[in-house]
């Protein structure tokens, strides 16, 4: 088994019209053994930027703590929050610094960029090789199942309610096809005015 799939789990980010969504499953397991069904892989960096980190859970938690530390230093020095593109470059640099003994994680970054609140999503592999797109990105053990559903259901410029429905259907239908993730999911919708968080019920078997 790949070390990236040791704890299972998966994340999706998706863009809409002046909004973005990020979702992850809630399973924490050790190979085929499920330990918890209340373990989201999505972390809030600030009001307009979230990070989803799949992969080895211990490395994901370490990476998140280092991101928070760097973000707090940035806020003290610059007196403002990091934008999603700055967070992307920060994480990419942190991962590349550790390329000879990498964190076994694949982060996804999403948020609203600049004063016009332009949707921004990006992702990278475990040594920080970045990809940025304007539709959706997926990581985790159920990636093969997620790609097909996302490509089928996604369309540009969705309003926040339609975006929630689309990312929820993508997540739940993909969970049915992967034994290492699932047990429910959580979805965050980021808009210029608010962050809406909703939990999805999934099969518990």
Automatic annotation (TrEMBL):
Q: Which domain of life is it from?
A: Eukaryota
GO CC entries: cytoplasm; nucleus; proteasome core complex, beta-subunit complex
Q: What Pfam families does the annotation carry?
A: Proteasome (PF00227)
- Name the InterPro entries on file: Ntn_hydrolases_N, Proteasome_beta_3, Proteasome_sua/b, Proteasome_suB-type
Question: Which BP terms does GO give this entry?
Answer: proteasome-mediated ubiquitin-dependent protein catabolic process
Keywords carried by this UniProt record: Cytoplasm, Nucleus, Proteasome
Which residues, if any, are the signal sequence? none
Q: Does the keyword Membrane apply?
A: no
Location(s) in or outside the cell: Nucleus
For this entry, the protein name equals Proteasome subunit beta
């Amino acid at each position: 088994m790949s070390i990236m799939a040791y704890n299972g789990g998966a994340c999706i980010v998706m863009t809409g019209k002046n909004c973005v969504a990020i979702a992850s499953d809630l399973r924490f397991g050790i190979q085929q053994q499920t330990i918890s069904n209340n373990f989201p892989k999505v972390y809030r960096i600030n009001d307009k930027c979230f990070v989803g980190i799949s992969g080895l859970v211990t490395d994901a938690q370490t990476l998140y703590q280092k991101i928070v530390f760097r973000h707090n230093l940035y806020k003290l020095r610059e007196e403002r929050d990091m934008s999603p593109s700055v967070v992307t470059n920060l994480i990419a640099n942190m991962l590349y610094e550790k390329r000879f003994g990498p964190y076994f994680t694949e982060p996804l970054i999403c948020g609203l960029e600049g004063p016009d609140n332009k949707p921004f999503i990006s992702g990278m592999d475990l040594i920080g090789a970045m990809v940025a797109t304007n539709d959706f990105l997926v990581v985790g053990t159920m990636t093969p199942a997620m790609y097909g559903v996302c490509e089928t259901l996604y369309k540009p410029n969705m309003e926040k309610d339609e975006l929630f429905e689309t990312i929820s259907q993508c997540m739940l239908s993909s969970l049915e096809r992967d034994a290492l993730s699932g047990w429910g999911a959580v979805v965050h919708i980021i808009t210029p005015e608010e962050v809406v968080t909703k939990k999805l019920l999934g099969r518990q078997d």
